[in-house]
Design a protein that fits this description.
This protein is α/β, with parallel strands linked by helices and 419 residues long. Helices cover 36% and strands 17% of the residues. It binds pyridoxal-5'-phosphate.
């Protein structure tokens, strides 16, 4: 039995890798043995503003002193301000926010809202996706995490991905007909006309390899959804709040989704909160139809205060712009790493989210994990998928980033062998 009196997630308990986190500052976190780690993964992709932000901690304290307990129907300033700020970020046409405690619940409630609004049962999502661990969100999820709990909720249909480096349609991005997007249209029609409630897509699939879509992808899917009367849900849990260089990831393309699900960067991990941001045309339906969704801890006051302050920090420190500016630096440095290692590899990235995919053995990936630990570099390394994913706090400096990725390169050369 593991020595700890609680479970670790997504692992047999014997395989858990606990680390004694004590705090941090900016792009760095500290552990109980006094080490300082460069956080190139924002812990679980959530610490967008960086560690140790005093402004957010103070905002939580002020809110706790003023009003610490709430009820779902209660109204207080931080709740109103947070909703107004999220709607302003999403732009014209979005009119209501539904609050949750995290990302899975945001997708869970988006599923319910889509079903209540359309009266339809089916949903479309992609194989290389993660949408959360609750039963509905896990059913949308396409990656390995769904398998252990199948069958999930009925009616979820998975489609192939926008995986240009290994196109599932055997195409090359220079000459393809964007089959990754048009197959969503075809799938919806084959499933039965007007039967799909919603299509759930991460703007850029994150944990599954940073699969940046071609520019036409989202517009094609938007058009297909319009023709079928299906809703388009942008799962921005990972990509939102500047992660890929825009406030919301879908804003890279000329599209407007029907719902946006958010969590992680919304309060940067300083409190547990998420949301579904809902377009006016759907919100209107619930003026005279019951919104059969609810949570005891709907819009918890301290979480609302943390999120409001987080959104102010993004603005004041211009963190979305920093992500956009440093994105090409991250990709450039990873391309230099790719040239140094003795295995075939691909680099993909947008804003401060990037992947190095390498055709190395699982043993070599294991060696990489050890090398990175020795260098005190924290990031998401997945030997089964063959990817290392970079998602540093958006406050990271250019020098810190470059030094971190070069140090990663040394570890990769030691683990995979030189070119
Ligand atoms: C794209 C995406 N959606 C949803 C989730 C689930 O969020 P949570 O873990 O807060 O439930 C995640 C978490 O990694 C995610 O990356």
């Amino acid at each position: 039995m593991s020595e700890y009196p609680f479970f670790f997630t997504w692992t047999a308990q014997q395989g858990a890798k606990p680390f004694a986190l004590t705090g941090g500052q900016g792009a760095w976190f500290t552990t109980a043995d006094g080490s300082r780690w460069l956080d190139l993964g924002s812990l679980s992709y959530q610490v967008n503003v960086g560690h140790g932000n005093k402004r957010i901690v103070e905002a939580i304290k002020r809110q706790a002193d003023e009003l610490c307990i709430s009820a779902p129907n209660a109204v207080f300033p931080a709740k109103v301000e947070l909703a107004e700020r999220l709607l302003a970020m999403a732009g014209q046409g979005f009119s209501k926010v539904f609050f949750t405690l995290g990302g899975a619940e945001a997708n869970e409630n988006a599923l319910k809202i889509a079903r209540l609004y359309t009266g339809r049962l089916k949903n479309v999502a992609r194989y290389r996706s993660y949408h959360g661990a609750s039963m509905g969100a896990l059913s949308l999820t396409g990656d390995w995490r769904r398998a252990a709990l199948e069958p999930g909720i009925p009616g979820v249909v998975h489609v192939q991905d926008c995986y240009c480096d290994r196109c599932p349609f055997g195409q090359r991005v220079e000459t393809c007909k964007r089959e990754c997007a048009t197959n969503i249209d075809a799938t919806m029609r084959l499933e039965g006309p007007k039967s799909v409630a919603a299509v759930f897509l991460e703007p850029v699939p994150g944990a599954n390899g940073v699969l940046v879509p071609p520019p036409e992808y989202w517009p094609i899917v938007r058009k297909a959804c319009d023709e079928e009367g299906a809703l388009l849900v942008a799962d921005e849990v990972l990509t939102g709040f500047g992660r890929i260089g825009k406030p919301f990831g879908y804003q890279h393309w000329d599209v407007v989704p029907d719902m946006i699900t958010v969590a992680k960067g919304m309060a940067s991990g300083y409190a547990t909160i998420g949301a579904v941001i809902v377009h006016e045309r759907i919100a209107q339906h619930f003026e005279d139809h019951v919104l059969a969704c609810g949570l005891t801890y709907y819009a918890h006051p301290t979480a609302c205060a943390a999120a409001v302050e987080t959104l102010k920090v993004y603005e004041d420190e211009q963190l979305y712009a920093n992500s956009a500016r440093l994105g090409p630096v991250l990709v450039r440095e990873l391309e230099a790493v790719a040239k140094r290692i003795g295995v075939k590899s691909f680099v993909r990235g947008l804003g401060l989210l990037a992947a190095l995919e390498a055709e190395a053995t699982e043993a070599a990936w294991g060696r990489l994990g050890k090398e990175l630990a020795a260098k005190k570099l924290s990031l998401h390394v997945d030997g089964k998928r063959g990817t290392a994913i970079f998602a540093p706090p958006l406050c990271i400096g250019e020098q810190e980033l470059v030094a971190g990725v070069r140090s990663f390169g040394d570890a990769a050369v030691a683990a995979f062998g030189p070119a």
